[in-house]
Amino acid sequence: MNPMSRTLPIKRAAHVYLVNDRHLLLVAERMDDGSIFYGLPGGKAHLGESLAAAAVRQVRHETGLSVTDLQFVSLLEGEMLTGTRNECYATFGRFTAHFTGDLAPTDPEVVGTRWVPFDEVLSLVKFGPPPEVEERNPLIWIPTRDFLNGQARTYYPI
C-alpha cells in the first residue's frame, strides 16, 4: 500500500505534570489484563475540544483537583501502534498547572492516586505488551523523564 494513501484515526490527548515538593502526581488505573498502570493525570480530548480544556476536564475527573494557569511543556506527535487494531496518529500535549482541592477521583477506572518522588516515577512504568496500549510505549515516557530532569523539550516526534 502506498503510505501516502493511508488514513489513520487521530488521537488527541493532554496530560498534566502536577508537582509538589519534587513529587509528581500519578494516577493508578486497572488495565484489561488486571495489572495496575501508573500514568499521568489527563486523557483524550473530545471532538472540537482544545488540549488545554481536555487537560482541565480529565484532571478533575481522574484526581478531583481543579487546575488553573496551564503552562505548555511539550507536544508529542506521530504514528503509534502501527500494525495493531489501535493504530493512530497521535497528538499529545503536556502541561504543568497550579492545582487546588482534595484528591477525590470520580473516574471509575482510577483505583488510586499517588505522589511519587521524581527519582521513583519511571520505576513504576510498565513497558511491553500488550502492544495496543500506548502508555506502555517507552517513547511516551521520554518527555516525562526529561521533565523530571529539568530538560524538557517542546517537541517530541513519536
Kindly describe this structure:
Residues 9-138 form the Nudix hydrolase domain. The chain is an alpha+beta fold. It has a single domain (3-146), classed as Alpha-Beta Complex (Nucleoside Triphosphate Pyrophosphohydrolase), CATH 3.90.79. Helices cover 15% and strands 41% of the residues. The chain contains two helices and nine strands, in the order βββββαβββαβ. The strands form two sheets. It has a five-stranded mixed sheet, sandwiched between helices. Strands 2, 3, 4 and 8 form a four-stranded antiparallel sheet that branches. A hairpin with a 7-residue loop joins strand 6 (66-80) and strand 7. The chain is globular, with a radius of gyration of 15 Å.
CATH homologous superfamily classification: Nucleoside Triphosphate Pyrophosphohydrolase
Architecture, CATH level 2? Alpha-Beta Complex
Mean pLDDT: 89
> Would you count the extended β strands for me?
9
- Strand arrangement within the widest β-sheet reads 5-1-7-6-9
Report the order of strands and helices.
EEEEEHEEEHE
Principal-axes shape call? globular
**Number of helical runs?**
2
The computed structural class is: alpha+beta
How much helix, percentage-wise, in residues? 10-25%
Strand content: 35-45%
Total discrete domains: 1
Distance between the termini: 22 Å
Low-confidence stretches: none
Organism: Deinococcus irradiatisoli
Keywords: Hydrolase
GO molecular function: hydrolase activity
Domain Nudix hydrolase: 9-138
